[in-house]
C-alpha cells in the first residue's frame, strides 16, 4: 500500500489534481454519451468535456459592468481550489489514504458545501437577476440536502466509532461493505438522493435550470472563469462519488493498479446508474417540490438510519 | 432571499421559440406583474400582400408562419374563392382536409414535445420529436417539403395522391397511432409531467370566455368550440370530427387536448382517404378572374380559429387583407394564467398557449 504520499503530490497530481480533473471530465463525457444514446441521439465524443475546457481556456472572460469584479472572478477560483483539496481527501481503498494533516471527514463535509456557496456568491456578484434567483434556489436546495448528508455521515461514523475515513474503510474491509448490510440501507438511500442534488442534475438542477433561469449563476460567466466552474463540477463528481464509495462500498484490500481500476469501475457504475439513468428518466422538480421531497424522504431516512444504528 | 426583481423573459430566451418580450416582476419565486411587449418580428406582411397579385399571395401567406403554414393560404384561398364564386371540386376538399390534419398532428406534437423539454424531461422531448418525424416524412413524400407544404391554390389544391402515396400515408398513420396512444398514457401518468403541469397556469371557463380564447386553450377550459364543427369548411361537414374538451383549464389539459386532437386527426385522415372521391383537384385549369368584392373566411388552425378578411378592387392585387390569428386572443389570457405563477412555470405556461409570434406580428 502506498502510504500517504507527500501532500503537494496528493493535491496536485494524484489522487487529486490532474488525475481527478481528468477523471471527472472523463466521467462527464461518458455521462453525456450514454444520455445521448438513451435519448436516441449519437452524442458528443467522449473527450468533448476536454475540448470544451480547452476552448474556454483560450477565450476571454467577460465581466459585466454591474458585476462586483473581484468576487465575480474570485468565486470560481475558490470553488475549484476547494474541490482540488477535497479530491485529495477522498481515499482510494488499498491505494491511497489521505494524510491526517490534510483533514478528516468533517473537513471534507465542509469542503463539499463550498461549491454551492461559491455558486451563490457568483450568482449575486454577477448582478444578473437570473443569478439572484439562482442564489435563492441554490440556498434552499442546500438547506434541504445538507441535513440528510450530515446525518448519513454521522450514521456511518457512529457505526464505525470514528470520524476518520481510514477507520471507516478499515472497518468495512473487516466486516464487509455497508452496501450489503440491510441496517445501512436507509442511510444509503438518503445518500443516493443527496448526490444528484449536490451534483446539480435533473431532477434537482433547479438553481441552473436552463429553460427557467438560463443557467442561473453561470449565466454571465465565459472563458476561463466558466472553465474553472466546469473543472469544479467535474471534481465535485469525483469527490461526491468517491465519498459514496468510501462510506458504503470500499474495495477489497488489493493494491496498486488493480485497486485504482476497481475504484474507477465503481465510479463509472455510480455515475452511469446514479446520474445518467436518473437524469434521462425524469423531468425537473420545482424548488418547493424538491424542498418538500428532501424534508420528507431523505431526511426521514437518514434520521431512521441514525436511530437504527444507535439502537443496534 | 425574498426580494423584488424584474426579470426579462425574452425577446431572446431559450424557453421561447420566437421573440416575445415579457417583463416580469417577481417577489421571491412568485410572479407579481407581467407586461407583455410584442413587435419584434414585424415584417410588414399586410402591406406586402397588397403589392402582389392573389396567386403570388398564396406563396406569401404560406410564409407568414411555419407551423400554421397550411392554414394561412387555405383561409386566404377560401376568401378569394368566395369573392370569385368558385366551388372547389370534391377531391380538392378532401385533399385540403388531409393537408390540414397532417399539419395539425405535426404542430401539436411539436408543442407537446417542447413542454417536455421545458420541464427538463429531455428523453420524452426526443421521443416526441421522433414520433413527429414520421409526420414530417409524410409531408416530404406527399408535398415535397417538410414545413411549407404548398398544398393550396385558388380553386383547389396543388397536389394529388396516388395509390402508392395513400398506402404510404396509411402505413405511417398506423405506426404513429400506437405511438400517440402511448404518449397519451405517458402524459397522463408520468409523475415528472403531472407535478409540473397539473393546476399550473389555470384559466377558468369564465376567464376563457371573457378573453375570447380559441383553439386548444379554449377547449382545455371546457369551451366546446371548434371551427371544423361550428362552421365546417373543406370536407369537414362529411367527416366525423371528435372535439375534445377538458374542464380544468390548466397546462396539462391543454397538452392533453393537443394529444387527443393529434389522435383524432389520424382518424380524420383515414376517413378522408377512405372516401376520397375521384375527379379534378382544381376548379378551373385557367387562372380564374377575381372580381371586385370582399369576403371573410375562417378555418381551424392548429392553434385555433383563424379568420381572413379580403377586399378586392378592380385590380389583381388585393386592396386589403386582414387576418386575425388565434395567438392574438390567446396571449391576452397569459396575463391571467401568469398571475401569481412561479418563476419556474413561466416558460411552461407561455408554451401552453402555443404562441405563434410571427403570425401575430406579421
Protein architecture, described:
The complex is a heterodimer of chains A (312) and B (362). The relative contact order of chain A is 0.17. Chain A has helices at 7-12, 17-38, 48-57, 69-89, 105-125, 129-160, 165-175, 185-199, 210-213, 223-248, 256-280, 287-296, 298-311. With 312 residues, chain A is mainly α. The mean pLDDT of chain A is 82. Chain A is globular and about 55 Å long. Chain A has one domain (7-311). In chain A, helix 6 (129-160) packs antiparallel against helix 8 (185-199) and helix 8 (185-199) runs antiparallel to helix 13. The longest helix of chain A has 32 residues, at 129-160. Chain B has 362 residues and is α+β, with helices and mostly antiparallel strands. Chain B has a single domain (51-320), classed as Cytochrome-c3 Hydrogenase, chain B, CATH 1.10.645. Chain B has 15 helices and 8 strands. Chain B has helices at 45-49, 54-62, 71-84, 90-118, 122-143, 163-189, 191-197, 205-211, 215-220, 227-230, 251-274, 326-330, 334-338, 343-352, 357-361; strands at 4-9, 21-27, 30-37, 152-153, 156-157, 293-301, 304-312, 318-324. Chain B has a 3-stranded antiparallel β-sheet, with no helix packed on it. The radius of gyration of chain B is 20 Å and the shape is globular. The mean pLDDT of chain B is 87. The A-B interface holds A 35, 38-41, 129-130, 132-133, 135-137, 139, 202-203, 205-206, 209-214, 280-289 and B 1-3, 5-8, 13-15, 26, 28-29, 116-124, 126-127, 130, 191-193, 195-196, 342-347.
Note the topology.
The complex is a heterodimer of chains A (312) and B (362).
Chain A: H1 7-12, H2 17-38, H3 48-57, H4 69-89, H5 105-125, H6 129-160, H7 165-175, H8 185-199, H9 210-213, H10 223-248, H11 256-280, H12 287-296, H13 298-311
Helix pairs in contact in A: 2-10, 2-11, 3-10, 4-5, 4-10, 5-6, 6-8, 6-12, 6-13, 8-10, 8-13, 10-11
Chain B: E1 4-9, E2 21-27, E3 30-37, H1 45-49, H2 54-62, H3 71-84, H4 90-118, H5 122-143, E4 152-153, E5 156-157, H6 163-189, H7 191-197, H8 205-211, H9 215-220, H10 227-230, H11 251-274, E6 293-301, E7 304-312, E8 318-324, H12 326-330, H13 334-338, H14 343-352, H15 357-361
Antiparallel strand pairs in B: 1-2, 2-3, 4-5, 6-7, 7-8
Helix pairs in contact in B: 2-3, 4-5, 4-11, 4-14, 5-6, 6-11
Amino acid at each position: 500500500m502506498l502510504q500517504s504520499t507527500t501532500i503537494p503530490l496528493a493535491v496536485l497530481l494524484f489522487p487529486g489534481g490532474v488525475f481527478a480533473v481528468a477523471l471527472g471530465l472523463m466521467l462527464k463525457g461518458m455521462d453525456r454519451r450514454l444520455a445521448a444514446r438513451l435519448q436516441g441521439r449519437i452524442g458528443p465524443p467522449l473527450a468533448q468535456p476536454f475540448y470544451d475546457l480547452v476552448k474556454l481556456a483560450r477565450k476571454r472572460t467577460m465581466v459585466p459592468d454591474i458585476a462586483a469584479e473581484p468576487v465575480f472572478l474570485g468565486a470560481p477560483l475558490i470553488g475549484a481550489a476547494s474541490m482540488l483539496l477535497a479530491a485529495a481527501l477522498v481515499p482510494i481503498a488499498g491505494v491511497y489514504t489521505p494524510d491526517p494533516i490534510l483533514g478528516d471527514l468533517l473537513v471534507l463535509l465542509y469542503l463539499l458545501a463550498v461549491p454551492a456557496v461559491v455558486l451563490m456568491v457568483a450568482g449575486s456578484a454577477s448582478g444578473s437577476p437570473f443569478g439572484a434567483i439562482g442564489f435563492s434556489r441554490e440556498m434552499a436546495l442546500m438547506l434541504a440536502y445538507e441535513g440528510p448528508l450530515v446525518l448519513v455521515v454521522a450514521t456511518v461514523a457512529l457505526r464505525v466509532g470514528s470520524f476518520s475515513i481510514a477507520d471507516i474503510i478499515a472497518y468495512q474491509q473487516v466486516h464487509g461493505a455497508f452496501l450489503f448490510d440491510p441496517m445501512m440501507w436507509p442511510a444509503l438511500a438518503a445518500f443516493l438522493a443527496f448526490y444528484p442534488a449536490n451534483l446539480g442534475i435533473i431532477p434537482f438542477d433547479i438553481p441552473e435550470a436552463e429553460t427557467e433561469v438560463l443557467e442561473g449563476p453561470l449565466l454571465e460567466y465565459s472563458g476561463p472563469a466558466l472553465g474553472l466552474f466546469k473543472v469544479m463540477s467535474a471534481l465535485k463528481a469525483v469527490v461526491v462519488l468517491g465519498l459514496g464509495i468510501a462510506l458504503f462500498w470500499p474495495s477489497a484490500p488489493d493494491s496498486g493498479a488493480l485497486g485504482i481500476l476497481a475504484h474507477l469501475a465503481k465510479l463509472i457504475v455510480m455515475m452511469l446508474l446514479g446520474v445518467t439513468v436518473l437524469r434521462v428518466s425524469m423531468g425537473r422538480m420545482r424548488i418547493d417540490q424538491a424542498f418538500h421531497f428532501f424534508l420528507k424522504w431523505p431526511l426521514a431516512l437518514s434520521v431512521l438510519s441514525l436511530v437504527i444504528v444507535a439502537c443496534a | 432571499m425574498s426580494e423584488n426583481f424584474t426579470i426579462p423573459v425574452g425577446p431572446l430566451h431559450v424557453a421561447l421559440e420566437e421573440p416575445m418580450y415579457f417583463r416580469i416582476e417577481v417577489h421571491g419565486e412568485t410572479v407579481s406583474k407581467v407586461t407583455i411587449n410584442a413587435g419584434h418580428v414585424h415584417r410588414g406582411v399586410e402591406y406586402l400582400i397588397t403589392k402582389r397579385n392573389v396567386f403570388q399571395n398564396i406563396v406569401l401567406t404560406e410564409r407568414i408562419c411555419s407551423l400554421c403554414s397550411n392554414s394561412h393560404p387555405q383561409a386566404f384561398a377560401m376568401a378569394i374563392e368566395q369573392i370569385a364564386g368558385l366551388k372547389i371540386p370534391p377531391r380538392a376538399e378532401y385533399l385540403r382536409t388531409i393537408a390540414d390534419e397532417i399539419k395539425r398532428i405535426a404542430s401539436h406534437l411539436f408543442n407537446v414535445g417542447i413542454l417536455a423539454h421545458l420541464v427538463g424531461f429531455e428523453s420524452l422531448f426526443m421521443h416526441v420529436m421522433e414520433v413527429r418525424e414520421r409526420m414530417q416524412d409524410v409531408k416530404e413524400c406527399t408535398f415535397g417539403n417538410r414545413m411549407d407544404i404548398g398544398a393550396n391554390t385558388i380553386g383547389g389544391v396543388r397536389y394529388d395522391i396516388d395509390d402508392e402515396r395513400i398506402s404510404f400515408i396509411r402505413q405511417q398513420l398506423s405506426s404513429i397511432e400506437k405511438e400517440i396512444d402511448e404518449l397519451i398514457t405517458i402524459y397522463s401518468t408520468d409523475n415528472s409531467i403531472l407535478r409540473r403541469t397539473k393546476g399550473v397556469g389555470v384559466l377558468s371557463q369564465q376567464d376563457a370566455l371573457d378573453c375570447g380564447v380559441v383553439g386548444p386553450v379554449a377547449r382545455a377550459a371546457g369551451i366546446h368550440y371548434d371551427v371544423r364543427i361550428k362552421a365546417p369548411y373543406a370536407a369537414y361537414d362529411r367527416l366525423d370530427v371528435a372535439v375534445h374538451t377538458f374542464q380544468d383549464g390548466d397546462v396539462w389539459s391543454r397538452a392533453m387536448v393537443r394529444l387527443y386532437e393529434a389522435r383524432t386527426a389520424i382518424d380524420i385522415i383515414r376517413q378522408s382517404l377512405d372516401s376520397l372521391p375521384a375527379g379534378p383537384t382544381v376548379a378551373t385549369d385557367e387562372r380564374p378572374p377575381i372580381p371586385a368584392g370582399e369576403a371573410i373566411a375562417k378555418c381551424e388552425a392548429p392553434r385555433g380559429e383563424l379568420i381572413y378578411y379580403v377586399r378586392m378592387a378592380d385590380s389583381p392585387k388585393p386592396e386589403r387583407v386582414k387576418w386575425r390569428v388565434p395567438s392574438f386572443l390567446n396571449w391576452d389570457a397569459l396575463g391571467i394564467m401568469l398571475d401569481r405563477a412561479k418563476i419556474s412555470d413561466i416558460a411552461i405556461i407561455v408554451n401552453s398557449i402555443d404562441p405563434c409570434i410571427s403570425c401575430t406580428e406579421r
